[in-house]
Protein: Ubiquitin carboxyl-terminal hydrolase 2
Organism: Sinocyclocheilus anshuiensis
Amino acid sequence: LFLPFLIGLVGLRNLGNTCFMNSILQCLSNTHDLRDYCLRNTHRTDLNNNCRAKAALMEEFAKLTQSLWTSSSSEAISPSDFKMQIQKYAPRFVGYNQQDAQEFLRFLLDGLHNEVNRVTVKPRSPMEDFDHVSDDEKGKRMWNKYLESEDSKVVDLFVGQLKSSLTCNECGFCSTVFDPFWDLSLPIAKTSGEVSLMDCLRLFTKEDVLDGNERPTCHRCKTRRKCTKKFTIQKFPKILVLHLKRFSECRVRTSKLSTFVNFPLKELDLREFASDNSVNAVYNLYAVSNHTGSSLGGHYTAYCRNPCVGEWYTYNDSRVSPMSSSQVRSSDAYVLFYESAASSRMKVIKILS
Ligand SMILES: *[C@@H]1O[C@H](CO)[C@@H](O)[C@H](O)[C@H]1NC(C)=O
Ligand SMILES: *[C@@H]1O[C@H](CO)[C@@H](O)[C@H](O)[C@H]1NC(C)=O
Ligand SMILES: [Zn+2]
């Protein structure tokens, strides 16, 4: 006997161009740890000062997630209460215009994080100078510094750390900067054929020469110099969100690239992009936000691998239907959700023990 409800196979009603929101909500609802956080009401203990007025978005998000997983029928659910809260938090979502799913995801995660931030009083410590320590140590200290003011379940899951190294072409001095990231926006190489996700990541982390007006100040030379800049991933998040930059702003018109980006469903190994190549950085795909159409209009759906049954399903607003994993890769894939293989293995061990 197969019951679509109770295992999250419930659709979301379209309230009028809200497919961008439904698509992201389904991807998040299939994010195992975030779902459990909502189902177990753990967010209640994290709510800022238990001030309900300041936690309305998280409450509605948790309620919606609970409805998707505990509804006693397979009938689609209306996300209108949730929409009310997200538009209070971010007024740009008022009304029924088509919006960008990745921007929506950013706003939503930011809103949820602010409400369940374990830090209620942010320290006002002066900027410290970490330049006398090793890069690795500096990365760690910068990360701890970040946690002193931003620390939540959302950060535990989604936030990683990026290292950018700036090398002076004149004296060879290398300075490093560490920044948290909530997702990576990857450029797509212009080509007539298909590209791979690794190509996009290589383009993203490619050495960039800063010259002319862009020349930064070298700390050793004490003057502006031509420099090379390069990104590496210092700390890998549990959930890695990769956004394919399909939309580009050119003058007044936005255009869309429909290049086929080939990405692995299993064992995406990102060690090549790590600051420290000995780390384990293997990921498995579990959700995709799919966008069809042009930049002017289009439709979003979600493909998610159900965490209970391990099979893939298409979420097209109120409709949920099984799909083959061979259909997941397409030139419509827009936002990819990967889970660290190490943290999914941990879960299996927990279930078995
Ligand atoms: C992506 O979604 C659109 C409709 O939203 C659909 O037409 C297209 O077939 C989907 N892509 C795949 C590979 O199913
Ligand atoms: C989504 O549903 C609409 C009808 O509501 C349909 O026209 C469209 O083809 C569907 N897209 C996919 C990818 O199933
Ligand atoms: Zn220099």
